[in-house]
Amino acid sequence: MFFERPDSGEIAVLVHIHFPDEKDREDPGEFLELVRSAGADPVVLIEGSRSHPSPKYFVGDGKLEEIRQAVAEHEAEVVLFNHALSPSQERNVEQALKCRVLDRTGLILDIFAQRARTHEGKLQVELAQLEYMTTRLVRGWTHLERQKGGIGLRGPGETQLETDRRLLRERIRTIHKRLEKVRKQRDQNRRSRRRAEIPSVSLVGYTNAGKSTLFNVLTDAEVYAADQLFATLDPTLRRIVMPDAGPVVLADTVGFIRHLPHKLVEAFRATLQEASEATLLVHVIDAADEARDENVEQVDLVLEEIGADKIPRLLVYNKIDCLPGYEPRIERDDQGVPERVWVSAVNGLGLDLLQQAIGERLSDDLFKDQLILEPAEGRLRAALYQHNAILNESVNESGQFVLDVRIPESDFIQILCRSGIKPERYFPNYGIEDFMLDSDLEVS
C-alpha cells in the first residue's frame, strides 16, 4: 500500500517558519524542490518567524488562521511543513485545518517510496515508514477517543489500536530480519572484493549534485538520472578499469540532504555501508549551487554518523558548465596528492582528469617500473603474469625479459619472498624488520 500514488499531483499549501537558531533553519528553495519531486502542486508558500516552535500547533494562532484561509481559498488537499512536527502537533494542526498535514520527514519518506524500485529499497522505505507511523497511529482512531475505561466500558477502539500496534511491531521485526539477510549478502560480496584486492570507490554527495550522471558517463551504465531531488534511491555497482589503478568497483549511492531523518539513516544503513567500507569516497559537489559549502557540511555530518568520516576523500566539483570561465582542472595539496577535481559530467568535461585523480589516489602503494629478468627467473615472471601485473613484455639482445610492471607493493613483496628474491633488490629502503614480518605472515 505504500507504493501506490495518485496519477496527478495534490494541491498543497506550504509552510516555512524562520528560526534564529542556525541549526534549526531549513532552506525554502530546497523545500519547494522536495515538494515538486514528490509530485505535489504547490499553490502558496506561507512564511513566518518565531523564536521557538509553539508546543501545540508549531505555529502561532494568527499564522494557523492564515494557513486555514489559504487551504479554503485554494481548496488544498494537503498542508506541508518544512519542519519536523511532533505527532501531537501534527494531530492538532489537522484537527484545526480539517486537512491532511505532513511534515518534512513524512514528505521525504513519500519521495523515497516513489523512487524505490528494488526489493531491498522497498523494504528499507517500508521500515522507515512503519517506524514513523508507530507514534502517529492514534490519529486513525480519534473517533473512538470518547470511549471510557473501566469494566464494561472498554470499546473496540482500544483493542483495535493495540492490535494495529502489535501488527506494526511484527511487520517491523520481519523487515529487520529480511534486511539482515541483505546486509550479510552485501558483507559477503565486500569480503570477496577484498580477497580479490579490488578497491571500491563510492560516489557520495548532496542530493541532485550529479552523482548518477557522473556514474553513467564513467561506467556506460543507464542509471536513472534527473534534475530532481532523490532521483537515485537504490545503489548501483559497476566494475570498471581506472588508469594506474586497474579494476575498481564504482558505487552510486543515495544522495544526502540537510537534517536527513535519522530513521532513514538507520533504515538505509545496509546501503550506506557501501560508502562506510569504501577504499575511496568521491564527494560530488554541485559547484553552481550557492549553498554548496553548507551542503558539504551536511554530507560530512552524515558520513560521520555512518562511520565513513575517516575514509580518504576526493572532492569533485561538478556542473562547471554552469559557471562561466571555469575550466576542468586538478587541485593538489602540498605533497602533490589530488584533492579537488573540477568537471562537468553532463558535457563530459574533465572526466579524463577525474580518472587520473582517482587512479593516483588509489595507487599510492603501487609499484610501477620496468624489470629486467634473467631467463632463470621464470618463476617470478609467471607469478607476475598470474597477478595480471605485466603491461608489456619484450626480449632484449641479451635474451633477458624486459617487463613493464604495475602491481600493489604489498603483492609484489609477497611474490618476491615466494620466489626467493630479497625485496631490497627493488625496495632499497625495505627494512629487515619488514622483511621478517612479511615472511612470518606468509608462513602463517
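(ticket continues) Second input and output from the same batch:
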Amino acid sequence: MPDLLIAGRLERPLILGSTSRYRRELLSRLQLPFETVSPEVDETPHSGETPYELSLRLAVAKAQAVAQLHPGAIVIGSDQVPELDGQPLSKPGTHERATEQLRQMSGRQMNFHTGVCVSCAETGFIESSVVTVQVRFRELNDLEIERYLRAEQPYDCAGSAKSEGLGIALLDAIVSDDPTALIGLPLIRTCQLLRAAGVVLP
C-alpha cells in the first residue's frame, strides 16, 4: 500500500469514529489531521460475551459503521470495557453509581480492556487489537470516595476515575505496555495499525 502522507497532508482522510473528548485529545498527539464522526452502534453486551470480547467487537463495529459512510477514509474505532469479577462495568453517569463502583473496586485489582480497530472500506483494510491494563485500587473509605467524586466528577469515565488526573491518587498500581490505553486509546497500538494501513508517522 502506498504512503498516505504527502507533503504533510493525508492522501486519505483520517476519521476518529468517536465523540469522546479523551480519545480526540489522545489522537491529536500524533499531529495528523483528522475529523470525528459519531458511530451509531448498539453497545449492549451479547449473552455470554466477555468484557475483552465486548471491547474488541465494539471497536470493530464502530470503525466499520463509520467506514461504510466514508469509504475512502481511514477510520479508527475504539471502545473500553472495565472488568471486575468477570463482569463489564459501564460508565457511571451519576454520582450515586460512581460511588457504588468505587466502593466495589476498593482494594481490588481489575482489568481495563481497550479495543482499537483501523479500517478502510475502499481498500478492504481492517485490523484490530485489544490492550489490557491491570489496575489496583487502594483501600478507599467513603469520605475519600466522596471527596474525589466532588473534585473531579468523572461520571463519563469507565471505572469512575481519571488516571490522568486526580484519580491517580486512588490507585496502588497500573501495569501496561501501552499507557494511554487506560485513558481511552492505546496510542502505541494505534500507531502500529495506522502504519499497517499505510499512514506515515514520525
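Agent notes: The radius of gyration is 17 Å. Residues 14-197 form a domain with the Maf protein fold (CATH 3.90.950.10). Closing as not reproducible unless the customer responds.
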